[in-house]
From TrEMBL:
<dbReference type="Pfam" id="PF00456">
    <property type="entry name" value="Transketolase_N"/>
</dbReference>
<dbReference type="InterPro" id="IPR029061">
    <property type="entry name" value="THDP-binding"/>
</dbReference>
<protein>
    <submittedName>
        <fullName>Transketolase</fullName>
    </submittedName>
</protein>
<keyword id="KW-0786">Thiamine pyrophosphate</keyword>
<dbReference type="InterPro" id="IPR005474">
    <property type="entry name" value="Transketolase_N"/>
</dbReference>
<feature type="domain" description="Transketolase N-terminal">
    <location>
        <begin position="30"/>
        <end position="269"/>
    </location>
</feature>
<comment type="similarity">
    <text>Belongs to the transketolase family.</text>
</comment>
Length: 285
């Protein structure tokens, strides 16, 4: 990856994070989780996937399914920056006059499937990948899951089927930010060692830094990892990435900041100097 390309991706990811912060008020959103996968979505849509505003109904396009649907602010921000939707539409967040809310809705151009109930989209992506293969097409099919989402048995059931049918055009990407809601994954239901679990289910696995564009490019450009197995990319990430005041905090999963805090956090994105937050945190059990 050239320095110029890396700088372009980093600048794009910064703008996407700005959108996420702005959506974190007047009802709020899942800020911490969205910030952890912003770099991943930016790379996939701007550099890897054959998906553009002008080919959203083309059967030869690539597919991305955001199974961890609560990260949709990162998807919205990416769509705005790449021309899928207008920036002004984000002003309708949580309004009954639009479909911009806490989880993806197919009425938003570019969203392939509704998600929010965790664990379901790996199976949907598997079905699409098998359909593409049966039609003799080489579409890339990506599904992004959360790490806490891996506690859902349907994720593993879909991989068993993908492995049995050698669906090598399916790639499952794990946003491994080490939190599930307000609890560290390893304190709730430990996932490690994670890569061997996927390997035992018949997948070919790579593990990378999910914030490093060079590593993202190297991993995705090597797909498929096997001619006979589905691929898995575990992306180690940081919840709240880009905002030191909320990074790796269990209590900053869902955030509803005041307007003044949003202004301070936008400055924090650029300065990397943590601000003081006084808004209430949300605890889910």
């Amino acid at each position: 990856m050239t320095p110029e390309k890396q700088q372009k991706l980093e600048a794009l990811a910064l703008r996407v994070r700005e959108h996420i912060v702005r959506l974190s008020t007047d009802g709020g959103c899942f800020t911490g989780a969205s910030l952890s996968c912003a770099d991943l979505l930016v790379y996939l849509y701007s550099d890897f996937l054959n998906v553009r505003p002008d080919n959203l109904t083309d059967p030869t396009r690539d597919y991305l399914f955001l199974s961890k649907g609560h990260d949709v602010p990162a998807l919205y921000g990416t769509f705005v920056e790449l021309g899928f939707m207008s920036k002004e539409r984000l002003d309708q967040h949580l309004s009954t006059d639009d479909h911009i809310y806490w989880h993806p809705n197919r009425n938003v151009p570019g969203v392939e499937f509704h998600s929010g109930s965790l664990g379901h989209l790996p199976s949907v992506a598997l079905g699409v990948a098998m359909d593409c293969r049966m039609r003799g097409q080489d579409n890339k099919v990506i599904v992004i899951t959360g790490d806490g989402e891996l506690n859902e048995g349907t994720v593993w059931e879909s991989l068993l089927v993908a492995s049995a049918h050698q669906v090598n055009n399916l790639t499952l990407v794990v946003d491994r930010n080490h939190f599930q809601a307000n609890v560290a994954t390893e304190d709730l239901i430990p996932l490690e060692p994670l890569a061997p679990k996927f390997e035992a289910f018949g997948c070919e696995v790579r593990r990378i830094d999910g914030h490093d564009f060079k590593q993202l490019e190297a991993a995705f450009s090597a797909l498929p990892f096997s001619d006979t197995k589905p691929s898995v990319i575990i992306c180690d990430t940081v919840r709240g990435r880009g905002l030191p005041s909320i990074e790796a905090r269990a209590d900053r999963w869902f955030c509803n900041f005041s307007a003044d805090e949003v202004a301070e956090l936008l400055r924090e994105l650029h300065s990397q100097e943590a601000t003081t937050l006084t808004s209430e945190t949300l605890t889910v059990r």
